[in-house]
Amino acid sequence: MKSVKIVEVGLRDGLQNETTMLSVDQRLVLLKKLIEAGVTHFEIGAFVSPEWVPQMSVTADLIGKYYSSSVYNKKFSASVLVPNEKGMRLAIEAGVKEVAIFASCSETFSKKNINCTIDESFERFKPVIALAKKHKIKVRGYLSTCFSCPFEGAISQKKVIAIARRMFKLGVYEVSIGDTIGAAHVGEVRTLFSKLKKAIPIKNLAGHFHDTRGQALANILAAYDLGVRTFDTSLGGLGGCPYAPGASGNVATEDVVYMFEGMKVKTGLKLDKLVELNQWLQPLMNHSLPSKVGRVGRLKPLKK
Ligand code: HMG
Ligand code: MG
C-alpha cells in the first residue's frame, strides 16, 4: 500500500498565531490525544524569542512534561523550530533529538520574521548545524514564501531552487517547501516541484501548505502526483505565521487524512480520533476551526 508521512505542526505553527494561550498541561493533553490518533511525527514548539512569539515561550516546559509522560516514545520525531545558536543551545538543554531551521525566499519576509537577511540567516545556521552534528541531533529545514510573499508578491522559482539547494547542502535531511500565505495554485506547484526534484532528491522534499485560499488540498495532490511523500498539516487547520499578514491556518490534518484515505494511501492516522480531537480543541481555542472534515466527520454509512 502506498503511504505518506504526515508531520503534525499544530502545537507550533498552529498555536503560534493564536490569541488564546493554552497552558502547558492543555498542550500536553493535546499532544497525548494526537499520539492516540496515530501521530508519530510532530513539532512540539519553538525556541524563538519569547518577545517575538510569546505563544512558544512554554516550549521547554512542554518538552520536559512530554519526556516524563506515559506517551513519550523515543522513536517518535518530536521537533522544535530554532532560528539561531541561542535557540539551538536551548533545544540541547531541553534534550531534543530533532530541530528545524527556517529560512525565507523573500528578503523582506526574512527581515520581518527573523530580523536578518537571507544570507545572514544561513550564517546563523552554521553553528546550529555544527552543534547538531556534535550532539547527534537531526535537522529539518523549512523554506518560507516559496511561491509568494505578503510584501514582495510572486517569488522567482529560480531563487527558490537555489535557496532550497543551499539549505539541503547545509546538511538538513528534508526541505519543507512552504506556501506561507496560502497563495500557491496547482500550476505553480507542478512547475516548482518538477524543477526542485531535479535539484534535490524527491524523498528529501516535503510540502507545507497553508490554506488561506482553499487551494492546499489540491496543491498537496499535485505535489503527491510528482512524488512528494511528506506533508505538514495542523489539526483543525489551526495556525498561520504572526509575521505573514493575511496568512491563515495550515491545511487541516483531518482534511488531508480524509483525502488520502479515499485514495487508499496510508497515513497511519485515525480519522475518527482526529475528528473527536477537533471537537475537543474547538471550545478551548474560543473560535471555530477551519477544518471541513473536522466539522462533519466521515460520511455515515446509509441505513439499509
Ligand atoms: P533579534 O531581536 O534580532 O535577536 O531577533 P537578537 O539576536 O538581537 O537578540 C535579542 C534578544 O533576543 C536577546 O535577549 C537574545 O538573547 C534573545 P536579551 O539579551 O535582549 O535579553 N534571543 C533569543 N531568545 C530565545 N530564543 C532565541 C533567541 N535568539 C535571540 N532563539 C530572532 C531574532 C530570530 C530571535 C527573532 O526574530 C525571532 O525569534 N523570530 C522568530 C519568528 C517566528 O518564530 N516566526 C514564526 C515561525 S516561522 C513560520 O511560521 C514559517 C513556517 O511555518 C513555514 C511556512 O509556513 O512558510 C516554518
Ligand atoms: Mg507555516
Describe the protein's architecture and organization.
The protein is 42% helix and 15% strand. It has 304 residues and is of the alpha/beta class. The protein has one domain: Alpha-Beta Barrel (TIM Barrel). The strands form two sheets. The chain has an eight-stranded parallel sheet. Helix 9 (216-225) links the parallel strand 9 (205-209) and strand 10 (230-233). The protein is globular and about 65 Å long. 3-hydroxy-3-methylglutaryl-coenzyme A (HMG) is lined by residues 13, 16, 46-49, 52-53, 81, 83-84, 86-87, 90, 102, 113-115, 142, 144, 178, 180, 208, 210, 241, 243.
Radius of gyration computed on alpha carbons: 18 Å
Helix count, per DSSP? 12
**What is the structural class?**
alpha/beta
Name of the CATH architecture: Alpha-Beta Barrel
Average pLDDT reading: 96
Bound molecules: 3-hydroxy-3-methylglutaryl-coenzyme A, magnesium ion
Number of strands: 10
CATH homologous superfamily classification: Aldolase class I
How would you summarize this macromolecular structure in one to three sentences?
Helices cover 42% and strands 15% of the residues. With 304 residues, the chain is α/β, with parallel strands linked by helices.
What are the defining features of this structure?
304 residues; alpha/beta; TIM Barrel; 12 helices; binds 3-hydroxy-3-methylglutaryl-coenzyme A; binds magnesium ion
Topology:
Elements: E1 5-8, H1 10-14, H2 24-36, E2 41-46, H3 59-67, E3 77-81, H4 85-94, E4 98-104, H5 107-114, H6 118-134, E5 138-144, E6 148-149, E7 153-154, H7 157-170, E8 175-179, H8 186-199, E9 205-209, H9 216-225, E10 230-233, H10 253-262, H11 271-285, H12 293-296
Helix pairs in contact: 2-3, 2-11, 7-8, 8-9
The chain binds 3-hydroxy-3-methylglutaryl-coenzyme A and magnesium ion (MG).
